[in-house]
Design goal:
Layout (H helix, E strand, L loop, with lengths): L4 H11 L6 H40 L4 H23 L8 H7 L4 H9 L4 H11 L3 H19 L1
């Protein structure tokens, strides 16, 4: 809560538009939107790295038992799922985060063309997944990231 007129004036001066062009503000908006959209896939990939690191610690230091073996398999499976989610979320079809990242690099008219069809994006994803279109490419990228992470940790 603002307690004095001086604080109110300071807030007003801080929030008013001091001659910053709208183009600059839009560029900042697109950049922050792209960074926010990248937060989900990046956190998935960082989680996969952490899970692989934990599995490496189990592999190196834990005595062999059924419990450790079960935990080791769980960590590897969860790391694979996390990589899959991170890569899939970067596909540039509008309901996914990849479309927000792509929007930061598109000209305005191309972005508005893409967003006109945003409501059909989920139907497109379902159709493509049932048809098997793009699955090979996504699987190849997921396997490449998996190999990269495993070579990095192991």
């Amino acid at each position: 809560m603002l307690t004095s007129p001086r604080e109110t004036r300071r807030l007003w001066e801080w929030t008013r538009r001091d001659g910053v062009s709208i183009r600059h503000r839009l560029a900042l908006y697109w950049a922050t939107m792209a960074l926010t959209a990248l937060a989900g896939p990046v956190s998935n990939l960082l989680l996969a790295l952490l899970l692989l690191l934990c599995s490496r610690l189990i592999y190196d230091f834990a005595p062999y038992s059924d419990l450790w073996n079960l935990l080791f398999g769980f960590l590897l499976d969860t790391a694979g799922l996390s990589i899959g989610l991170g890569v899939f979320n970067l596909v540039p079809i509008p309901p996914l985060d990849g479309s927000k990242v792509l929007a930061a690099f598109l000209p305005d008219h191309a972005y508005f063309q893409l967003m006109r069809y945003e409501r059909y994006g989920m139907l497109l994803l379902i159709f493509l997944s049932f048809q098997g279109v793009g699955g090979g490419v996504i699987s190849a990228v997921i396997n490449w990231v998996w190999q990269l992470f495993v070579n990095l940790i192991y």
